[in-house]
Every structure is written in structure tokens, then in C-alpha cells.
Amino acid sequence: MYFPYLYSRQAELNAVSDVSSNFGSPQRIFPLIEPVEPAAKLISTLTDLKSKAKAAYVIVNPHQGKLSKSAVATAWQSDFAAMLADSAVVYPTFKETAATTLKDIASFVAAYPGRKIGIVLATSKLAPGDLAKALSGSDYTVFFLATASSANYLAALGPARTVDVSDNFRSEARNKDYSGEEWLGNNHTSWSAAGRRGFSDFTMLPGTYKDGGGPVGAIAIHLTYALGSDLWIQHFISTTDEQTDPQATKFKEVLGDIQRQRAVTPSRFELSPGLSSYETQRASGNYTNLSGNKRQQVSHHIHTVAKHLGL
């Protein structure tokens, strides 16, 4: 199974809706969503998932982005309460923080009896045996960020209950510094032989959460593709790269580059909703904004992985 780790920004949630029809039946792709914004858009996305009989893991103790402010986080808890109670669509997930204790884990497990739950570990400070005891009797999946060592926990938890969240996207400070093609990972092929529950990544985004910025210089489009048993990513970057330059000019350049690459390697990229949107924009000259650009890249990545899984 595949668990794309996403933050609840509009672009990423829209991407989930774009590709939810590719999640499989029975479901094999489950978004793992960390809220960072007020709840309204997340509720809308989950309502759409429910209409398609799909579910998602949702972190229920969010503390990043706008939810780092206690008043906003309190409002989120209130607004999300009704959706959280719906076991058909929300699998409650607890994310470890620096202050997390085993008592916190036990309290979380007790709050959701009989439900599928998730734990996101950011460190290896909790003793494996103690964590296994706290989770005993629950239907759990433990997700390991790169800062935690899953190897320490496999014996106690069982590999079939664990998922590594890969963070292989190499982030640059400036879009103009990306170039060419890069290896993105192969845990989408190695997890099954290792007896793991599935695999996870941050799609084609950096794993560390960062609030959105202002104007960009160059426009970047990062397109994932499968090559043998590996995932790769190709960076398409506009040559026009000043913040004051017209955004339409930048999109025209980068979408033209994608068209030329597809002519040379027509089978490289899956025809995802994101890639189809880019082609429509190129042909019409009506371009998206930066949020839409991220949406299309995320949806293309998830669609590509889905196709690699045979969905």
C-alpha cells in the first residue's frame, strides 16, 4: 500500500481529489494528511473521499503552520470534531513531538477503540517494547519519519505494522538551481519483500514543512516517472527567472520544454490529470497559478505511483 504524506494546503488537498479514483478497490492508496490550515478545506476533501468510499489517515494533534497558534489549533479541533468521529473516512493519527510520552500514546489509543489508527514517529526515544505494549490490541500502523529508525522497532511492532516515510526529494533554495533528472527512490518496490505494510513519501515535495512564500524567480515543474524498479524525477525550469518577469512567459517556456521532452520520450510520463492539465494550458495559453502548479505535480506523482502499483 502507498501512503503519500501530505500537508493540508489547498494544492495538496486538491491533488488528492484529482486522483482519488486511482486509490484502488479495495483501497491501496491512503493519504496521510498533516493539517496545517483551518479545517474547512480538509473537511471538504474528506467529504469527497467518503462519497467515493475512500479513507485517509489524519493527524489529530497538529501543531505546524497556522495551527502553531493555540487559538487556531483549538478552533481546528472544534471544527473537525464531527468529521473525526466518522470512522469510515478518518483514521486518527498521532504525531510524536519532543514532549510525547508513552502515557500520551496510551491515551490516544484509548480515545479511539475499535478504529484504525496511525502513529507518526519523529524520533527513536520511545522504547520499542513499551510502544508495542501501548499499542497492543489496536489496529495500528506506525509511520517512521527519516529522523526515526524503524529498524529498532520492527521486532517489537512487527514489520507488517510499519511504514517508512521516505524523504528523497533534494530541495534547492532557488528553482533555477534544479536541473536534469534525479533518482527519487525505490521503496515502492522493496516494501513487500521486506514484509512491510506499505511505503510512503512526500510526493515530489520536501519533507520539512515550510510556509508558502511570495513571488518566485524561475518556474519549476518536477515530473515523476518510473524507470525499471526505480522512481525518477525530471526538473523542468523556465529560463526566465526574475521575480518581476511575467509569470505567463515562464509557464510558456517550461511547458514548451515538457512538450519537447514528451516528443523525444513519449512513454516516459504517465498521462495523469496533472500532465493533461499542463498540456491544455500549453495549447490554450491560459496558465495556472503557483498553487495550481503544485497541485498538478502532486497529482502527477500519486497517479504515477498508482500506475506502477497496477491501479
Automatic annotation (TrEMBL):
Protein name: Sce7725 family protein
